[in-house]
Fold these 2 entries.
Entry 1:
Amino acid sequence: MGDIYVYLVTDAKNFEVETRTGQSVGFDFGLKKFLTASDGKDITSPLFFSNSSKLIAKASRELSRKCKGSNNRRRARLNLARVYKKTTNRRHDFHFKLARRLCLEYDTICIENLNVKGMQRLWGRKILDLGFSDFVKILRYEASKFGTVVIEVERYFASSQICHYCGEKNPQVKDLRIRKWKCPKCGVEHDRDRNAAINILQEGLGQRPLQEIP
Ligand SMILES: [Zn+2]
């Protein structure tokens, strides 16, 4: 498709551990917010994530309209491949820059162990567009360069349903439409995703629950 690849070779040392920050964070993956952070420094999905699926759909539609064997069809096929490629490249670039930034900012990053199939069932094909599992691979790679520790918390741990303050489990929160809730035991009010992110951090660091209410 006329792509040009440039490879650079240097003798600079790659795997240097930077000065550490003493900061830890927990992240919850989501659709609208790419990452909800336990410390409130959330990462929004870039606009092109949602735009790109529209562009791909449009290019596929155009391809299906062209007559088989025609020059127009060949051009439409090439165009679709270009749109795919561009989307992948931009996502890759976003993932790398974000991973690097997070590794510079945090010593320890706790995330949920992703069960992509389960998430797909829950959220549909959008999950593929966001490329969470690609991001985790890139995050691990960057972390190994900076000396950041990435801790994956097991998926069966019900991060959304547990009150991070008192440890009470509230199964009503299973309903994905509930974005905010009040703990029936301690009365603390929660934002669904923030509470999940804090739980992921506490679980990852082995500190959960932080406070037990009598
Ligand atoms: Zn509570």
Note: Residues 163, 165-166, 168, 183, 185-186, 188 surround zinc ion (CB under 6 Å).
Entry 2:
Amino acid sequence: MCEVLLDVQHLTHYFKINSKIKIRAVDDLSFQIRRGEIFGLVGESGCGKSTAAYCLMNIYRPFSGKILYRGIDICDPKAYRRNKKMLQTSRQMIFQDSASSLNGRMKVAEIIAEPMEIHHIRPPRGSLRREAEFQLHYVGMEASYLDRYPSQLSGGMRQRVAIARALTMEPALLIADEPVASLDVSIQAQILNLFKHLQSEHGFSILFIAHDLSVVKYLCDRVGVMYRGRLVETAPSGELFENPLHPYTKALLSAIPCPDPRRERHRVWQEYDPALFEWPGEMVEISPDHLVRKGEEKIEN
Ligand SMILES: Nc1ncnc2c1ncn2[C@@H]1O[C@H](COP(=O)(O)OP(=O)(O)O)[C@@H](O)[C@H]1O
Ligand SMILES: [Mg+2]
């Protein structure tokens, strides 16, 4: 399936700190997400992942660049207004910190049903509560949790509730911003499996944001590695892990611990020294779907 759902072109976003200082959080970022694919966006903390996600969700207005969703230029106010309901329902976002993203004063049933109320969507299963119960069950939780408050749930359960809430809108695009970063490793695996399962059942696209590559390895179809607001490499997941080309990707990969203790003992950490390469260089297509940023290596005297 090759139809493009989201087309991000030269997206740039600055934060103005004062009259002299501005932070270039996202800098000339371009990538596409196809229908039904899970695209992983990976990079260290502060590289601009959340800022990019907020631009894609119309939370921030980008400084420049274009974002086409289903061919609609979502940064054009007129086009946005014309398609407002579709844009607000068919794109859903899950945040890292569900403790603060879920309203602590609402019960789980109300949290899940709220988007249907806001958008005046008739619940397919008769009532808002029955719909909430269905979605909660669907993400692996029992109906007894419907009357609990978020503070009475574990982190993993809160993320399940956030996912159930998003599912009520039958999204075509789910943006998940480090949804497992604050969870224990065993719970992380459960939530990753849930994402994989949901994607295969519903066929929606997912932009899955993470700060380390190990999390996206089994989940994502394609991965983009981000550094200082830009992509440095994008490739199908298997290709990226087998044949990483950019020195920053190699450094990220070398940071993943090996499960085999013998191999772990011989694991060599690679560091990426940006001073050794011309920046930003150019994105070059090495093989179909595998792009890498090429910058001349600087020769040290
Ligand atoms: N609201 C803000 N005001 C000023 N600077 C910000 C703001 N949000 C993010 N930044 C800065 O923009 C850069 C990218 O941040 P962010 O998008 O949160 O990165 P990530 O999600 O990859 O950790 C960082 O240098 C961060 O400090
Ligand atoms: Mg972030």
Note: The chain has twelve helices and twelve strands.
